[in-house]
Write the structure tokens for this entry.
Amino acid sequence: MTFNWKNTVAAATVAAMTAAPALAQEMTLKLGHLANEDNPWHLASVKFGEELAALTDGRIVVEVFPNESLGKEIDLINGMQLGTVDMTITGESLQNWAPMAALLAVPYAYKSIDHMDEVASGEVGDQIKAQIIEKAQIRPIAHFARGPRNLTSNRAIASPDDLDGLKMRVPNVPLFVDTWQALGANPGPMAFSEVFTSLQNGTIESQENPLALIRSASFFEVQSHVNMTEHVRSWIYLTIAESTWNKLSEEDQAAVLEAAALAQAYERELFDESIAADRAFLEEKGMTFVEVDGAAFQAAAKDAVLMNVNDEIKPIVEGLFSE
């Protein structure tokens, strides 16, 4: 996806510092993440800093570090636990500490983005956040959307019956491999860097990824169809270290949560725009979008998904499948 906004680390810091009449600066929060400057997650992070500066009259400043410039995701999580980093954007990687974080990205668990939001903002979401706080000492304060993963191919695939041994690339994740096997495909792990050439020479026939990655990787040059399987819907958290949170007054904690809510709403606006823009771009490049029988895919995948999730979250996943 392509946006016209350009935000550097310096710009993010300046924006946060000048968003309100400045009193004496009391605290600087370092927020590192993996996305680039054009990504909605980064733009929402900058928005968070601007809003927090405004709400605290410039007493709290947020410095945003995109592109893993402050470290990779696991390094940032470790840094937050050690007190050297204040904030990051992270998701199911937290299951290394809090098993319930695996619920952020379970195939076919969420029927729509509204269903996903309902879970993330509801009782199950509260349970996930509570366990992350307890086990990882990191506090989720907002959630951002991820683009759903869709299957690309050179023919229309509207139901599991259409897969019929389709040779496809999947990430090296047992859950993904087993799920696509259950659906009737012939999946195999492969490094992402090898996918374009393998599609080009026919080693594989398809792959699955969000629209933004289908676009940025130029898969439209070697694939003709986007089958709207939307088989993985997921979210990711904007988080703050519990040690940093505990340094804040109740008033400032309330300001952090208010700024996070505004950033979450802003990210969703950008997310919706990016999904529409990516689809329009891919259609202009000649790709055909295929609506699929989502219920049939979900039913065929259910047993494989349940076999691959841990016992702690299995009852919740069963409940999500039955909703």
Summary: The chain has two domains: 9-147+234-283, 150-231+287-322. The longest strand covers residues 225-241.
